[in-house]
Write a structure and sequence with these properties.
This protein is an alpha+beta fold. It contains 5 helices and 27 strands. The strands form 6 sheets. A 6-stranded antiparallel barrel has the order 2-14-18-16-15-19. The chain has a 5-stranded antiparallel sheet with strand order 5-8-13-3-12, with no helix packed on it. Residues 419-446 have a biased composition (Gly residues).
Length: 446
């Protein structure tokens, strides 16, 4: 049977379409399943020349601005607050009056102490006169005993001596005088304590600064319950009490007022224990404030807390930094980012840290142009670059293991800074040409 020509033409078109579809599927399958990628080793890595310059290592953290000197004075003489002489935000000088409590009780104790002091002084005077008389009598008795024929008066003295020996009388008088002097000394101390208690009814600023909080009100009872009281016995009335008190500086927020020196601000930041072992007092640092991101401040690490703080299982140590200059608009509590320089190498050979392979304590680099690997010794490990102390010479070409520079940032977070030209070094052409790397980050090349 012979098909018409127009039917044959339609059948040929279908066959051609089917063949084209089969070929397309075959080609796609070939590229997907049969063609292998070029070996990774054949890809050319970017290269870099060993350079000379400065390498620094640092650790970073964030903290807050705080006053370098704060105080929270509290009344130690209990009483009802009768007057508050300051307001929040007011600047006060050291020793300025802040508030007062009712002085009636303290003044009463002072009057009693004064009376006891007078009585004690009179007792000392009387004891001194008694001792003087006893000594005179003892001298007369001695002269009478030395005379062969005693007179009528001497006979009377001897008769009296049978009642009390002159030496015993002198000894007793001396003991009485010693007790009177001891009572007088205690009375003097009680007067001083009572006067201090009266003075303490006026709370004074222990430091110069700004009043940041007032924690009491007029009419409230102020004063520490632990304030001591001393008592001493006078030679006449017996007992006299005087409260001993001094104005002290306590933990911020626990006093009657809070005072901060806002002219001397510092940065307090916490460092994880892995970074804390790298920092020590005297190291230089830089500080930036979130409120002024374009301003960099110079600081010095003043101290590192010897005791840790544990929060949610994370151990950290607090570092305090003194600022060389405080911005005029800086405020307590502002967030500050601090970077501490922990190590520095000048005029050192250095390479990007991404060019070094680490295996335990062994460090190797891959030489360019098929030169194989070479073991090196390292020094300061910076954020982006590492010092080479042996194994390489300035100008040697090595390969990067990665096309970027990675640096350990705050708390182990990585910062990756790409090289100019999409990860390639300046001057590197297609296929990984050579070129020097820029002095970015913490390294300055020649």
């Amino acid at each position: 049977m012979v098909l018409p020509r127009h039917k044959l033409r339609g059948l040929s078109f279908v066959n051609v379409a089917l063949v084209a579809i089969v070929l397309a599927i075959a080609i796609t399958a070939y590229f997907l399943f049969f063609r292998k990628d070029a070996p990774a080793a054949s890809a050319t890595r970017p290269t870099v020349a060993v350079a000379r310059g400065e390498v620094t290592a640092s650790v970073s953290s964030s903290g807050t601005l705080a006053s370098s000197q704060t105080a929270s004075p509290q009344f130690e003489t209990s009483g009802t607050v009768t007057q508050i002489m300051v307001k929040v935000g007011q600047v006060v000088a050291k020793g300025a009056a802040i508030a007062k409590v009712d002085p009636s009780a303290a003044e009463r104790d002072l009057r009693i102490a004064d009376q006891n002091q007078i009585a004690a002084a009179n007792s000392v005077t009387a004891a001194e006169e008694t001792l003087s008389d006893a000594k005179d009598a003892a001298e007369e008795a001695e002269e009478a005993s030395a005379s062969p024929t005693p007179t009528t008066g001497q006979q009377q003295t001897q008769s009296q001596g049978q009642t009390q020996n002159p030496e015993v009388a002198v000894s007793n008088a001396e003991a009485s005088l010693a007790r009177a002097k001891a009572d007088k000394e205690q009375a003097d101390q009680n007067v001083e304590a009572a006067q201090a208690a009266v003075d303490a009814t006026t709370l004074k600023a222990p430091i110069a600064g700004t009043i940041t909080a007032i924690n009491g009100t007029v009419g409230s009872v102020a004063g520490s319950s632990s304030s001591g009281s001393g008592s001493g016995s006078g030679s006449t009335s017996g007992q006299g009490s005087a409260s001993t008190s001094t104005t002290t500086t306590s933990t911020s927020g626990s006093g009657f007022v809070d005072i901060s020196d806002l002219k001397k601000l510092q940065v307090v930041a916490a460092f994880p224990e892995a970074d804390a072992i790298k920092i020590k007092a005297g190291q230089s640092a830089t500080v930036t404030l979130n409120a002024e991101p374009g301003t960099t401040l110079t600081a010095t690490l003043a101290s590192v807390s010897p005791t840790p703080t544990t929060t949610n299982g994370v151990v950290s140590y607090s570092g305090t930094f003194s600022l060389a200059k405080v911005p005029a608009n800086a405020r307590m509590g502002q967030t500050a980012n601090v970077t501490v320089q922990t190590a520095k190498a000048t005029n050192a050979l250095y390479v990007p840290s991404t060019a070094i392979a680490t295996s335990g304590t062994t460090y190797t680099v891959t030489m360019a142009d098929g030169g194989g690997t070479r073991e090196v010794k390292i020094g300061v490990k910076g954020d982006s670059y590492t010092q080479i102390t042996s194994g390489l010479n300035e100008g040697d070409l090595i390969e990067l293991l990665q096309g970027s520079i990675s640096s350990a940032g705050q708390n182990g977070q990585n910062r990756t800074g790409q090289f100019p030209g999409g990860g390639q070094f300046p001057g590197a052409g297609a296929g990984g040409g050579t070129g020097g790397f820029g002095g970015g980050g913490t390294n300055r090349g020649r």
